[in-house]
Amino acid sequence: MLLKKEGYPEAEELVLCTVTNVQFHSVFCKLDEYEKSGMIHISEIAPGRIKNIREYVQEGKKVVCKVLQVNKERGHIDLSLRRVNEGQKRTKLNEIKQEQFAEKIVEGVAKMKKMDPKLAYTKIRQPVFTKYPGLYPAFEAVSRDEEDLATLGVDAALAKDLTEAIKTKIKPPVIELAGDITITSTAPNGIDIIRDSLNEALQVKAEITLRYKGAGTHHIVVTSDDFKKAEKVLKEATDKVMTYAEKHKAVAEFKRQE
Q: How far apart are CA 77 and CA 88, in angstroms?
């Protein structure tokens, strides 16, 4: 892995470690992202009494730990294994996996351009890390056309080839949020009111589909590559429908699909 962070980790930060030395009451680890060492006291390995520490860790094992405290003057980093739950562990390992995937993209472009991969990584890292915590978040933004590597400061020729590779390798996620809109009206022109109410949703500039389900109910689906954007669009679209319907004395109800 090419990613190496500078300085020391922060307290509460999750870090990927490699076990280097297992002793009777403590475990020493190398912090893979920082090129520094830390220690896990036996009390921070697992809950309860531990008879044999090697039942939990062995030299060479990769573990996700939480940073308890850092003493920069002494160079000491205290770690905990037991305070990391399964969800946090999965999230951290997924972040590492994504960053390694981004590095593979850089290596592929470097080989194509007959560059040293480490040199290419260095050229990309400096401008990217001024705005993003890693390559992958930046590359995701590029894949969604929300970021331009050249604008960030990456060499124009390298940025062009890298952008092409990113868009081939990283596809934006497809997020779908949906629900049912039910509208009833007793007005003589009730059908027109219902139709015009639903058309209000389609005025929102986004990917929205409406499908009639029956009994005055329509199914609305918002598609996006970003969950927060989809949430915002769904709310805006349904609010417009409700407002128009109520203004014309129709009864409207929206039920979110979970």
A: 20
Are residues 117 and 164 both part of a single domain? yes
Q: What's the structural domain count of the chain?
A: 3
Handedness of CA 58, 61, 67, 70 (dihedral sign): positive
Q: Which of 178, 237, 238 is nearest to 211 (CA)?
A: 178
Supply the CATH number for residue 213's domain: 3.30.70.1130
Whole-model pTM over 0.70: no
Q: What is the pLDDT of residues 95-154, one digit of tens each?
A: 999 999 999 999 999 999 999 999 999 999 889 999 998 999 999 999 989 999 999 999
Indicate which CATH number applies to the domain containing 157: 1.10.150.190
114: left (phi over 0), alpha (psi -120 to 50) or beta: left
Res. 2: pLDDT tops 70: no
Whether 100 maps to a domain, the answer reads: yes
Distance separating alpha carbons of residues 245 and 185, to the nearest angstrom: 9
Query: Which single residue is written with the structure tokens 């890390």?
Result: 129
| Domain housing 67 | 14-84
Furthest CA-CA distance within the chain: 84
Q: Encoding tokens for residue 167? A: 């868009």
Q: What is the mean pLDDT of residues 11-34?
A: 95
- Distance from C-alpha of 231 to C-alpha of 222, rounded to nearest angstrom: 8
Query: Scanning the structure block, which residue is given the tokens 């609305």?
Result: 220
Structure-block tokens of residue 208 = 């929205």
